[in-house]
Design goal:
Number of strands: 14
Bound molecules: adenosine-2'-5'-diphosphate
Distance between the termini: 11 Å
CATH class of the largest domain: Alpha Beta
CATH architecture of the largest domain: 2-Layer Sandwich
Oligomer: single chain
CATH topology of the largest domain: Dihydrodipicolinate Reductase, domain 2
Largest sheet: 6 strands, parallel
Structural class: alpha/beta
Helix content: 25-40%
């Protein structure tokens, strides 16, 4: 694989830090690295592969032809800087929702639709964290018997909202245990010892934007607009890794045992499904891991083609940084320079 000038936008954030860990762990071939963020952290030093890098201010003129930009600095920031980066001849793998539903922008999960990368015009969108882990688990089943309907409820960790939200959960938990007040800042309500059925903003149809991302991104990545997705997304007081209760209806019956066999051969999936020994996927076990874990696979008691699954993955890794780095690796394999 050739090496690439590489740039991380939002390098000081929760996903940005994970980008750096993953680039290091996967030995991503970098010819030159730059770390960008806002004026709040410009000048800060960050270590990478034993060398110190200075965080630079993101500007419209930050980019160069041939550069690969891994970006996670919020949707507003992406909307502003990405067109400038593309004009410079760089390619942006963008982790925000800014461009995901633009028809000409590929939305890619390498285990599901790697072919879409080839038609990029300078932007490749990294899907929403909850969508990524769900499609990694469902595509192998969809390939065997088309999925007609998905009903999903998520249990999403606070790291999906960034580093400050993780700090809020830690400090609020401690404050409440010490019987002290800790008013919410990052969340609309108390997150410690609580669940919030509210991620991203509400839309006119009663669903939140996070829920609608799961609907439309799933259809786009699976390249099947007829899949009927109903999502309820919940923020829970977990620091890292999202869990999902997923119910699917398939065209032909897939038994629970067949599903276990299909998924145990699927790329990026590990089946943990041994209820007799209390073995099932949990967020604490998937933290820091690359795979999507699937368990609690059950056939519906009443509906012959219904199947329930419990899907867990580290939202900062497969749900964000790892998926983006895998896309960048594919770009290099395709000869990007
Ligand atoms: P900064 O440290 O300068 O605030 P998280 O999702 O964990 O909150 O992280 C968000 C990341 O996006 C941080 O690295 C943050 O940098 C960066 N960021 C936010 N707004 C901007 C901006 N306008 N320009 C560049 N980087 C930004």
């Amino acid at each position: 694989m050739a090496s690439a000038k590489t740039c991380v936008v939002g390098a000081t954030g929760a996903v940005g830090q994970e980008f750096l860990r993953i680039l290091e762990q996967r030995d991503f071939p970098i010819s030159r690295l730059r770390l960008l963020a806002s004026e709040r952290s410009a000048g800060k030093r960050i270590a990478f592969r034993g060398k110190d890098y200075t965080v630079e201010l993101l500007t419209e003129n930050s980019f160069e032809k041939g550069e690969i930009i891994l970006s996670s600095a919020g949707g507003g920031t992406s909307k502003w800087f990405v067109p400038h980066a593309v004009k410079s001849g760089a390619v942006v793998v963008d982790n925000t929702s800014a461009f995901r539903m633009e028809p000409e922008v590929p939305l890619v999960v390498p285990e599901v639709n790697p072919h879409a990368i080839q038609r990029h015009k300078g932007i490749i969108a990294n899907p929403n964290c909850s969508t990524i882990q769900m499609v990694v688990a469902l595509k192998p089943l969809h390939d065997v018997s088309r999925i007609k309907r998905i009903v999903v409820s998520t249990y999403q960790s606070v790291s999906g909202k960034g580093a400050k939200a993780m700090e809020e959960l830690r400090l609020q938990t401690k404050a409440l245990l010490d019987e002290k007040p800790y008013p919410p800042k990052e969340f609309p309500w108390q997150i410690a010892f609580n669940c919030l059925p509210h991620i991203d903003s509400f839309t006119d149809n009663g669903f939140t934007k996070e829920e609608l991302k799961m609907v439309y991104e799933t259809q786009k990545i699976m390249e099947d607009d007829s899949i009927a997705v109903n999502a309820t997304t919940i923020r829970v007081p977990v620091l890292r890794s999202h869990s999902e209760s997923v119910y699917i209806e398939t065209e032909k019956k897939i038994t629970a045992q067949q599903a276990r066999e299909i998924l145990s051969k699927a790329p990026g999936v590990i089946v943990v499904d041994d209820p007799a020994n209390n073995k099932y996927p949990m967020p604490v076990d998937s933290e820091g891991r690359d795979e999507t874990f699937v368990g609690r696979i059950r056939e519906d008691l009443f509906f012959p083609t219904g199947l329930s699954l419990w899907v867990v993955s580290d939202n900062l890794r497969k749900g964000a940084a790892l998926n983006a780095v895998q896309i960048a690796e594919k770009l290099l394999q395709l000869g990007w320079s």
